[in-house]
From TrEMBL:
The lineage of its organism: Bacteria, Pseudomonadati, Pseudomonadota, Alphaproteobacteria, Rhodobacterales. Keywords: Coiled coil, Kinase, Membrane, Phosphoprotein, Transferase, Transmembrane, Transmembrane helix. The keyword Membrane applies. This is histidine kinase. One of its GO terms (molecular function) is phosphorelay sensor kinase activity. Residues 20-244 form the Histidine kinase domain. It comes from Paragemmobacter aquarius.
């Protein structure tokens, strides 16, 4: 029954995906066809002033190409190359790129935990995820504000695991991205991970950012959770399992680590 439910969810996601793509694609085709149509009519009556319409068609085609690119990147079960990673070093290495993508008005603050455990993860995917989350935070703070990236050791206990799907209790490295932006309503929060779900204007949002992040975290055996309040801001927490190096002992309980509530 569980496998069936999962299959059902998969079919639903594919349905949403193809519905969303068909819709966006139609819009782009309409632009291309409309522009070519005008150009053709003009040429037929001897008017050669058509460059702007051909440009319009090219732009529409460019956007359609961009969409298929993103779709391919999304649907390809990208094989992950997990490596033992120090999350603090990863975040520090991205500092420059993140600051550049955040622009002038959004300040980036790093709060990197000491004695951080290591994790085994695809570094490129972590970077991708952080850039996606940072851009969402920037969009959520049109008048500027502070974006915080935090790392710390975390322990997910039995109570937390039984309250959340597919969470194994144990030790995790927590990566939290917080903004003081517009926040999400409950409805938006419920759909935020759905592919092609976006509340942004056409051309601004693709609705693929969070679904990509979700896919990567799940594929890595991790856990992701959104905390958000309209008007207050959003925190996205990503938990990646602790990697035990040689000589490191597995402990069931950990002091000195955050235990999330709820
Ligand atoms: P996109 O950013 O292209 O819309 P995403 O999948 O990244 O696609 O996000 C889906 C939706 O979730 C966004 O359109 C927005 O409504 C909401 N969202 C994501 N991140 C945030 C955030 N930090 N603050 C408020 N809303 C957010």
């Amino acid at each position: 029954a569980e496998a069936q439910a999962r299959q059902g969810q998969k079919m639903e996601a594919i349905g949403q995906l193809s519905g969303g793509v068909a819709h966006d694609f139609n819009n782009m085709l309409a632009i291309i066809m409309g522009s070519l149509h005008v150009a053709k009519r003009r040429l037929e009556r001897g008017d050669t002033d058509v460059v702007q319409f051909l440009d319009g068609a090219l732009e529409g085609a460019g956007r359609a190409a961009g969409l298929t690119q993103r779709l391919l990147a999304f649907s390809r079960k990208q094989p992950l190359t997990p490596e033992v990673a120090d999350m603090n070093a990863l975040v520090r290495g991205l500092d420059e790129l993140l600051r550049r993508s955040l622009g002038e008005t959004v300040r980036l603050e790093l709060a990197l935990g000491g004695g951080l455990w290591r994790t085994r993860v695809d570094k490129g995917q972590v970077e991708n995820a952080l850039v996606n989350l940072a851009i969402n935070a920037r969009d959520a703070m049109p008048d500027g504000g502070k974006l915080t990236i935090e790392t710390m050791n975390a322990f997910l206990d039995d109570a937390y695991a039984s309250a959340h799907d597919e969470v194994t209790p144990g030790q995790y490295v927590l990566l939290a991205v917080s903004d003081a932006g517009v926040g999400m309503t409950r409805k938006v929060m419920e759909r935020a991970f759905d592919p092609f779900f976006t509340t942004k204007d056409a051309g601004k949002g693709t609705g693929l950012g969070l679904s990509q992040v979700y896919g990567f975290v799940k594929q890595s055996g991790g856990h992701i959770k959104i905390y958000s309040e309209p008007g207050q801001g959003t925190t996205i927490k990503i938990y990646l399992a602790r990697h035990y190096g040689e000589g490191e002992v597995r402990a069931d309980v950990v002091l000195d680590a955050e235990v999330p509530m709820g």
